[in-house]
C-alpha cells in the first residue's frame, strides 16, 4: 500500500469516536429532548385525535332438543365470510352514508369489518375524528345490514351482541409512541452530526496519527508551551 492509498483511506478510531460521543453527551441529550418536545407538541396540537366505536353481531344457531343445532352452527361459520363481504360492499355502505348525510368515502375509510376465526361473531368498528359520528356509523351499519338480510335473504337469526357506545378516549395518535420516535430521531440526528464531524476532521492530534498519515516512523515530538 503506497502513501496515496493510505491517505485516501477513511479510518475510524473507535476509542476516539467514543471520546467524542462522551464529550458531546449534553448535545445528544439536548437533541433527544428537542425531539420529545416537537413530537409531544405535534401530537397535542397538530395531529387530529381519532375515536373508535365498535359493536358486534352474532349468527345465532337454533336450539334443538335443548342443544344447539351443530349443522346450523357449521353453516353459520361458512356464511360469516359472505356476510363480512356484504358489510364491506358498496350497497350497505352507500346506504349508511345516505342515511347519515355523509359521503360514502367517509364511511368506507372509517369502517373495519372483522370476524374472529372459528366464530359466528362479526365485529364492526368505525374510527373518525368525532366519537359521536363513529357510534352512529356503527349503529347505522348494523341496522342497514340486519334489515337487508331479513328482507332480501330471509335471514332472521342475526342478533346484536355488543351495542356501540360513544368512546371519549382517542385511539390515536399515541403520545407514548410518538414521544419515543421523537427521542430516537433526536439521538440519531445528533449521532449522525457527530460522526460526520469526526470523519471530516483532518487535523493531526497526536504522534500516532502523524505516523499513520506520513507512513514513516516518528523521530520526535516538539512540545508546545503557551506563553
Automatic annotation (TrEMBL):
Q: Which UniProt keywords apply?
A: Cell membrane, Membrane, Transmembrane, Transmembrane helix
Which segments constitute the Tyrosine-protein kinase G-rich domain? 149-196
User: Which stretches are transmembrane?
Assistant: 27-47, 179-200
A GO MF annotation of the entry reads: protein tyrosine kinase activity
Its GO CC terms?
Answer: plasma membrane
| Places the protein is found | Cell membrane
In the bilayer, the protein is annotated as: Multi-pass membrane protein
Chief subcellular location: membrane
One Pfam family, please name it: GNVR
- Which residue numbers delimit the Polysaccharide chain length determinant N-terminal domain? 11-100
User: Which family is this sequence assigned to?
Assistant: Belongs to the CpsC/CapA family.
The name of this protein is Wzz/FepE/Etk N-terminal domain-containing protein
What is the native source organism of this protein?
A: Thomasclavelia ramosa
